[in-house]
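name: query_chain
kind: protein
chains: 1
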Amino acid sequence: MKQLQNEGYTIESTPRNGYKLTACPDILTYDEIFENLKTQYIGRKMIHYHSIGSTNDKARELAESGEPEGTVVISERQTNGRGRFGRKWLSETAKGILMSIILKPNIDMSSVTLVTQIGCASVGSAVDRLTNHVKIKWPNDILVNGKKICGILTESAGELDKTDYVILGIGINVNQAESELPESLSATSTSLKIEMKKEISRQRLVSDILNRFENQYQKMQERQNVNEALDFCRTHSNIIGKNILLKRNGRQSKAQAMDLNNQGQLVVRYKDGTCENISSADILSTLDI
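structure:
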């Protein structure tokens, strides 16, 4: 009983009547999420931590030891969370969603970008249900009212023609208050609570994301069909049709973002008229060229 109370459950005791559970904490254990989970296998095994270095690191370790597809590593806090290019990811205890999904898709390594786009569409559409101000900054950021609330980090292992596993890491700012955002990030990052002026159920949001993700992921696995996910990313893009400054391999280039191709790559056109399909880059800004 004391352990449950320490985890945030409110339990009242009355003489001769025993104990009564009066309130549950918004913690992200399977027992608190499964009621709204409609998946067959994504999230049906959920490994929960109160604190961990990195959910992606743990998921990769588990994948290499044979953990089944669909296993989710989720934590209330990360001490070594990271985004693309090793950037630090904000992590306040029990304020955000910090989870990594172990996947074993039947795709080659060049198609792993599709998994990222399915992740963006799944998170984006779940958040869009709460607020219709969602945009996607290719390749892996979800924005609300122009500020970042989610980053997705996809890591994979395999050979050119075969993917052994993919780890899809998702970090979402959910219930952080403005005072809890570092001053250095307040101009570019936000949380759902800040934008919606109310607390959001992390449990319902996690189950909604996993439900949406499995639906789109299965379409890719069974029919090689990712049109719905890519269409969402296109229609909610904050850069398609705009001039951008992008950075790749330490070099900056100006181009126009034209479209996403069927592999989830960004199609850009340079000033000289040449076009290129890009799998990974850092979009520094939109601009006039």
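note: Confidence is low (pLDDT under 50) at residues 3-11, 19-23.
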